[in-house]
Write a structure and sequence with these properties.
The protein contains ten helices and 13 strands. By secondary structure, it is α/β, with parallel strands linked by helices. The protein has a seven-stranded parallel β-sheet, sandwiched between helices. A two-stranded parallel sheet has the order 7-10. A two-stranded parallel ribbon has the order 8-13.
């Protein structure tokens, strides 16, 4: 039985990856400092995974976590653009040094594959649409810088040491378990939970900024495929739906599903925010056999149903 490490495995995406690995019969180790991740996210596989509670900024902890694993799914991160702008030193320590610690530990332990959660933020100010790998602009936030540096380190470790590292550039991932309670929370859980309570969500700018929303189940499938794909080693690959949805359109969709007519509060644009985002996913299709399994509307219905059940 193969063993896999999921860093940030008590978080939103990581917990879904851990569940999928357990469901197919693999042994799973989770590394998480539980600063934002929650063990309740792993309640569905309680007793069927090993927990290493620790921080990726600590190299000895990383060495202990990678021991005996076939692949690493590296999801742990400071995952907020706004927080990286407010605290760039913390963002660098977690997203750059933490990733490098894990790569060093994986190299030294003889790990086969290393799948890094990267981000569409690496495209920065590139104006072209859709976003295509190899056509990156200048990052607009410390978060984007850190994710790009992590990708480059993965490519170097592949070239120098044969570690099959692949970076998955997530666009806007959504689904059950996404935390709506932080001031840095993603837009879908914020909108859904506020509309459920009859409260007005905030839209920054004119609301015509667009995002490429991808359901978490599709992201999980992409991770499993990336770990098993020698052709993807050393590459950076977009993981998205390939379609654009505006923030105004998102609120309209949430209102429609819930039968509500909540109007937003309008606020000034946020620094570091990208105005338009949609991905070309041809490379993911070619290297990973990836295609979105759920439409945005179906994924949003599943997500809204989960938040209704929890409210």
């Amino acid at each position: 039985m193969a063993k896999y490490l999921v860093t940030g495995g008590a978080g939103f995406i990581g917990s879904h990856i851990a569940e999928a690995l357990v469901a197919r019969g693999d042994a799973v180790r989770v590394l998480d400092d539980l600063s934002t991740g929650k063990l309740e996210n792993l309640a569905g596989i309680a007793g069927r995974f090993e927990l290493v509670e620790g921080d990726i900024r600590d190299l000895p902890t990383c060495r202990r976590a990678v021991e005996g694993v076939a692949a690493v799914f590296h999801q742990a991160a400071l995952a907020s653009v706004a927080r990286s702008v407010a605290d760039p030193l913390l963002a660098d320590a977690i997203n750059v040094t933490g990733t490098l610690n894990l790569l060093v530990a994986a190299r030294d332990a003889g790990v086969g594959s290393f799948v890094l959660a990267s981000s569409s933020a690496v495209y920065g100010d590139d104006p072209a649409m859709p976003k295509v790998e190899g056509r990156e602009g200048r990052p607009l936030s410390p978060y984007g810088v850190g994710k790009l540096v992590g990708e480059k380190y993965g490519q170097v470790f592949h070239a120098l040491h044969g570690l099959r590292a692949v970076a998955l550039r997530y666009f806007n991932v959504f689904g059950p378990r996404q935390d709506p309670h932080s001031e840095y929370s993603a837009v879908i859980p914020l909108f859904v939970t506020r509309v459920l309570r009859g409260e007005r969500p905030t839209i920054y700018g004119d609301g015509e900024q667009s995002r490429d929303f991808v359901f978490v189940g599709d992201v999980v499938r992409a991770n499993l495929a990336a770990a098993a794909s020698p052709a993807a080693a050393g590459e950076a690959v977009n993981i998205a739906s390939g379609t654009e949805t505006t923030v105004n359109g998102l609120l309209a969709a949430v209102n429609g599903i819930l039968g509500a007519r909540i109007e937003p509060v309008r606020a000034d644009p946020r620094p570091g925010d990208i105005l338009r985002s949609a991905a070309d996913i041809a490379k993911a299709r070619r290297l990973l056999g990836f295609a979105p399994g759920l439409s945005f509307e179906d994924g949003l219905r599943k997500t809204v149903a989960w938040y209704k059940e929890k409210s």
